[in-house]
Amino acid sequence: QSALTQPASVSGSPGQSITISCTGTSSDVGSYNLVSWYQQHPGKAPKLMIYEVSKRPSGVSNRFSGSKSGNTASLTISGLQAEDEADYYCCSYAGSRVFGGGTKLTVL
Amino acid sequence: EVQLVESGGGLIQPGGSLRLSCAASGFTVSSNYMSWVRQAPGKGLEWVSVIYSGGSTYYADSVKGRFTISRDNSKNTLYLQMNSLRAEDTAVYYCARDRYVLMVPRGMDVWGQGTTVTVSS
């Protein structure tokens, strides 16, 4: 399976909202509501932020939300904060598991 | 406390073998799906392998035939046996609990701190 496609970088100012896209195919993202999102700070392990496209694990801020349309899933972060600056990865479960290439979020 | 602790990484020559360990606490490895995920220096996450609670195993094409995932239920520990190592296997290797509920994946919700594997002569 090919990696899912994410923008290399996005940026936003504190308080703003940003959206990170994750594009797959009709065989993975488009076929199943099984997309998860991970946040990774430098030198740290990834952290699960969203699963099943739009569900938040306990303890994850409601500023993080997920959605999907066709073959593209999206992660939206509202009320941007400095600590949101990190790398974000989507992951699709479609038989196997495949990650996106990652998106570096910069909080200006 | 739910926790995963990896060990076993190091510097190894091309063609060599290494076994990574991932000790779990706070939950039972054999009752869960468990994955290995790696991250090459400066690169993104790459899924490597998974073992299901029933014992089925699956691998990324890049490691198929060279890596073997297994677990020791008595030690509550996950392993990754890596053979015929190549320079492109150089990465931080993470183990993660690959949570499933009623056969639906709910993401990798517990991660270890990672162990570094460097393949170089």
Q: DSSP strand (E) fraction of chain A?
A: over 45%
Coarse morphology of chain A: globular
Report the helical percentage of chain A: under 10%
Biggest sheet descriptor of chain B: 7 strands, mixed
Major sheet of chain A: 6 strands, mixed
Q: What structural class do helix, strand and pairing data of chain B support?
A: mainly beta
What's the N-to-C terminus distance of chain A? 35 Å
Which stretches of chain B are low in confidence, meaning pLDDT under 50 for 5 or more residues running?
none
**Assembly context of the chains:** heterodimer
Would you write up a description of this structure?
The complex is a heterodimer of chains A (108) and B (121). Chain A is mainly β. Helix content of chain A is 0%, strand content 46%. Chain A has strands at 9-12, 18-23, 35-40, 47-50, 64-69, 72-77, 86-94, 96-99, 103-107. In chain A, the strands form two sheets. In chain A, strands 1, 3, 4, 7, 8 and 9 form a six-stranded mixed sheet that branches. In chain A, strands 2-6-5 form a three-stranded antiparallel sheet, with no helix packed on it. The radius of gyration of chain A is 13 Å and the shape is globular. The mean pLDDT of chain A is 95. By secondary structure, chain B is an all-beta fold. Helices cover 0% and strands 57% of the residues of chain B. Chain B is built from no helices and eleven strands. Chain B has strands spanning 3-7, 10-12, 18-25, 33-39, 45-51, 57-59, 67-72, 77-82, 91-101, 104-111, 115-119. In chain B, strands 2, 4, 5, 6, 9, 10 and 11 form a seven-stranded mixed sheet that branches. Chain B is globular, with a radius of gyration of 14 Å. The relative contact order of chain B is 0.31. The mean pLDDT of chain B is 96. Chain A binds chain B through residues 3, 34, 36, 38, 40, 45-48, 50-52, 55, 57, 87, 89, 91, 93, 96-102, and chain B through 35, 37, 44-47, 50, 58, 60, 94, 96, 98-99, 104-109, 111-114.
